[in-house]
From TrEMBL:
<keyword id="KW-0812">Transmembrane</keyword>
<dbReference type="Pfam" id="PF03650">
    <property type="entry name" value="MPC"/>
</dbReference>
<keyword id="KW-0813">Transport</keyword>
<keyword id="KW-0999">Mitochondrion inner membrane</keyword>
<comment type="function">
    <text>Mediates the uptake of pyruvate into mitochondria.</text>
</comment>
<keyword id="KW-1133">Transmembrane helix</keyword>
<keyword id="KW-0472">Membrane</keyword>
<comment type="similarity">
    <text>Belongs to the mitochondrial pyruvate carrier (MPC) (TC 2.A.105) family.</text>
</comment>
<feature type="transmembrane region" description="Helical">
    <location>
        <begin position="46"/>
        <end position="67"/>
    </location>
</feature>
<protein>
    <recommendedName>
        <fullName>Mitochondrial pyruvate carrier</fullName>
    </recommendedName>
</protein>
<dbReference type="InterPro" id="IPR005336">
    <property type="entry name" value="MPC"/>
</dbReference>
<dbReference type="GO" id="GO:0005743">
    <property type="term" value="C:mitochondrial inner membrane"/>
</dbReference>
<keyword id="KW-0496">Mitochondrion</keyword>
<dbReference type="GO" id="GO:0006850">
    <property type="term" value="P:pyruvate import into mitochondria"/>
</dbReference>
Length: 122
């Protein structure tokens, strides 16, 4: 399998693909989903609901474009599918935090119960 890939890579078709925008466009675009996946670990207070929704819509539109363009650009489709999924998860985190009580749960500070010391007879 590796030798087949190497042979294809050395062929004019392989070189043409790797030096085209069908390859480098999606590769450069992978920064968005990678950043979105990294942001899943961050605090909900820094999520911009407007921007996250806009990025999710953008990725869904370009998923359709990647599917409809001839020849189909599977790399671009995968990139936008990953980004749309990550942005929708971020949107869910945003809505949960600001509108469904997640903020209130986080703000509740559990006070440690301190038992009163009893005087010991000396």
């Amino acid at each position: 399998m590796a030798s087949t890939f190497v042979n294809w890579l050395k062929s004019p078709a392989g070189r043409q693909y790797f030096f085209s925008t069908h390859f480098w466009g999606p590769v450069a675009n992978w920064g968005l989903p990678l950043a979105a996946l990294a942001d899943l670990q961050k605090d909900e207070t820094i999520i911009s609901g407007t921007m996250t929704t806009a990025l999710a819509c953008y990725s869904m539109v370009f998923m359709r474009f990647a599917w409809r363009v001839q020849p189909r650009n599977y790399l671009l489709f995968a990139c936008h599918a990953t980004n749309a999924t990550a942005q929708l998860v971020q949107d869910a985190r945003f809505v949960n935090y600001w509108y469904l009580g997640g903020r209130d749960k986080k703000l509740v500070v559990k006070q440690p119960e301190v038992e009163p010391k009893q005087a010991t007879p000396s």
